[in-house]
Amino acid sequence: MFSFNLYLPEIFILILILLTIGFGVFNKDLSISLNTIGFLFISFFLINTGFSFYERYGLTGNTSKLIVLTKIILSLGSAVFILLSKRPLKNDNIYRYEYILFILFATLGSFILITSTNFLTAFIGLELQSLSLYLMAAFSTKNLSSNEAGIKYFSLGALSSGFLLFGISMIYFEMGNFNFQDISSFGFMGEIGLALILISLFFKVSAAPFHIWTPDVYQGSPTVSVLFFATLPKLASLIFLFRIYHEFNIVDIQSLNYIFQIVCILSLLVGVYGAITQKVIKRLLAFSSINHIGFILLAIMSYQYMSEGAFFFYLIIYIITTFGIFSVILNLRNIDGELTQISQLNGLKSLSRSKSIAMLVFLFSLAGIPPFAGFFGKFFILSASINEGLYVLSAIAVLSSVIAAFYYLTIIKNMFFNNPEIELLTDTNKITQVIIIISALVLTLFFFYPDPLINLVDSLFSQN
Amino acid sequence: MNFNFPILSLLVLTPIIGALTLSLTSSEQLKNKTILLSGLWISVGEFLLSLLLPIFYNKSQNGYQFLEFHTWFDQFDINYFVGVDGVSIPLILLTTFLIPICLLCSWNSIQTRVKEFVIYFLLLESFIIGVFISIDLVIFYVFFEAVLIPMFLIIGIWGGENRIYATFKFFLYTLAGSVLMLLAIIYIILVTKTGNIQQIAGFNFQENIQLILFICFFASFAVKVPMFPFHTWLPDAHVQAPTSGSVILAGVLLKLGAYGFMRLSVPFFEYASIYYQPFIFTLSCIAIVYTSIVALRQDDMKKMIAYSSVAHMGFVTIGIFTLTSDGMNGAYFQMISHGVVSAALFLIVGVVYERHHTRMIADYSGVTNIMPKYSFFFMVFMLASVGLPGTSGFVGEFLVIMSTISVNVYLTIFTAMGVVLGAAYMLLLYKNVNFGEIKSNIKKLHDLTGIELFYFICLAFLTILLGVYPKILFNMINESILQGIL
Hints:
The structure holds two protein chains of two kinds.
Chain A: H1 8-24, H2 28-49, H3 61-91, H4 98-115, H5 119-137, H6 144-175, H7 188-204, H8 213-220, H9 223-247, H10 254-276, H11 281-301, H12 307-331, E1 332-334, E2 337-338, H13 348-351, H14 353-367, H15 373-388, H16 391-416, E3 425-426, H17 430-448, H18 451-461
Antiparallel strand pairs in A: 1-2, 1-3
Helix pairs in contact in A: 1-2, 1-4, 2-3, 3-4, 3-9, 4-5, 4-9, 5-6, 5-9, 6-7, 6-8, 7-9, 7-10, 8-11, 9-11, 9-12, 10-11, 10-16, 11-12, 11-15, 11-16, 12-14, 12-15, 12-17, 12-18, 14-16, 14-17
Chain B: H1 7-24, H2 32-56, E1 65-73, E2 78-84, H3 88-105, H4 114-133, H5 137-146, H6 148-158, H7 163-192, H8 197-201, H9 207-224, H10 233-240, H11 243-268, H12 270-275, H13 277-296, H14 301-321, H15 325-356, H16 367-370, H17 372-386, H18 392-407, H19 409-434, H20 450-468, H21 471-485
Helix pairs in contact in B: 1-2, 1-4, 2-3, 2-4, 3-4, 3-11, 3-15, 4-5, 4-6, 5-7, 6-7, 7-9, 7-10, 9-11, 10-14, 11-14, 11-15, 13-14, 13-19, 14-15, 14-18, 14-19, 15-17, 15-18, 15-20, 15-21, 17-19, 17-20, 18-19, 18-20
């Protein structure tokens, strides 16, 4: 049964792409405002259609809600990101209209990926998303490290896509089918195939030990691109991973469950140990994101009690925090250009009070110190995992967050305790400033008024 | 009595609102003194507000009073549920009493970033009060952890030369202990389906599970108290912290751990409390004897008092885990007394440090000739710390030692040894600083200023009052300890 309506969000993006190709060449600013409005329209459309939109696909109610909510967040995030990206791109002298096209293609890929009910569609979505990301990593063509990052990302990403295809073909070999619904129990080949698919997804979300590309790509790519791949495409891949885990009941497949647990533990530990000695801000954030992926995998594994809510809540908070931190970094420059070293943040407190306090909120929130929202993200995940009986994993997770606190504190130390060494120029970019303020407020005020976010997450995933 | 005024929320919110208002003013317009003065007024107002608690507290009524209840996370049955009983009120008063003194003692010593300083102290105050008033485990944990943030910044910004090391050590040690407690809290909430401390206290956990949960809570509180093997962050933090930081750290923050033992560990885990009794007694005895001996050998005054804090808190943990009414009362009295006396001793060190910029005992000699008022107050607090009858230090130690006899006589011997050793190092300190030849560079020091005189008189008055008429405190706490904890 083919229903045209179901593809409307994707079709909207396609229209945006066509319009951008048509007009973007002549007027970049116009295409920015056009796409922002377009994405806002898409999110409005999705809010309007309601959460049961995809039940007509044959998806269960909860999955449908998950997909609709993710799409709303993706389109809102893309709208914000397109607005935000203009100034940093101009600063790097790479303000070209293709960049917006890549964002559009990547978002289209994410949409297809999370909606897919079939391995081939999922593959197309994932590849569309990843190829755009490789280009965004290499977008600063005059900059050698950006090229290097792009090539690294591409070659390793292509390898992982190979794994994905191989895994899909093995499942096809056993089942003779690509549809999620028709694949029920796995034999030996099917299990290996699924393992390969999981590995490919672990690569995309940069879970250890498939994380090697992350620090290099983060460091080399233009910072604004890093903000993009740290948030929205990663959200889409994680949602897809979540769906795979639950639709194939991986919890019942012993061997795959072990793989999941090992990857979770390794991500938690590699993330923190890698980050401790980092001197470069983006590398540190790369490792810290690996640690957070560990927490998210823990949420995926503990699936019974509020876990969908916990999982989603953590992701929302993580995305808000990441947007905030990168906005601070994008907002600060010195004479040579962007800030790269942590030591360049020295004495930020005396330079810009609001930015340093916002940064303090973001970092304590990432470290999971109450009363900021990041603490509640961890709290809900740990509640879910303890309820599931994953005591050892929970203990490892909280201990890793203690070590993680060390390097977040180091940044705070640089900002608050040290004296400024170099002259910092603040960029008067209104959009990043607004994002900084809004995200810091959201993280702080959650403690005083948690109802909106909690009710949103809860109404989505309650059992009825 | 019907008392619908939301006094507890107001106690938490007043400093936060004050801090917010201060942070919104631009720092160029206000002079440092104006900022300190406004912070002082806020904290004095807070103190007066907190005085309403003992006035309107109904001693004949059991359980928590001034209750406030707001749903917070419906799904988890986690609520903003606050209330106080006799065990919390004296500690709240101690907090609101010490914060103005902290700001007063920074009148001249803090010159840089004064506005931030005041803001952090106000935030610290409201977080600490939050710990003492919460009846919900999650709220308790949130405030318990949040205390770390302002303290981290206070030590890190205004501390001594080695402040970064000290403040990191403080933060990470405490956090590492607390996360285990977080896991235990989550487990308890999942099992009992409530976060309410009173209801959880009525729940019987399985014995072997109690043993594990107790250790998780113990990890957090033992670091905070601090008990013997976990105490190494304390001397560093104290030595590097500014005087005001040391005052609040010794005065109130250490009590958070002991309060946690009283409020959570003992009522929740009755079996485990008895099971681990010997373990905790051993650690506390080591703490008392060992840290007293270490304190004897210190050449830095602040470090000596920091070690003496560990020894004194050893009495508190022994008192709590005798699980007798006398022991509990004594431990609680010792907490309050130590809060006043050690805070005063850190102020005493701060006074000479501000004038002479050294904390080494060897750099001082014959101070009593130059600063007679100073050495008088030094003597009062030194004697209180030693436990002279008539001062507040005596009552708590006496009760604790008395209660140990019913448990184990050897325990009594070790505990009593602590008193002797305590006298040894405190008298040594007093003698070396105050008596002897007048060193030439001491001569230029001036005696106590008006502000200093004022807060020393307040503290000395409290010390003597508690020592002469301890009933004023016991009246408040006794019933609550009998009903709520044992």
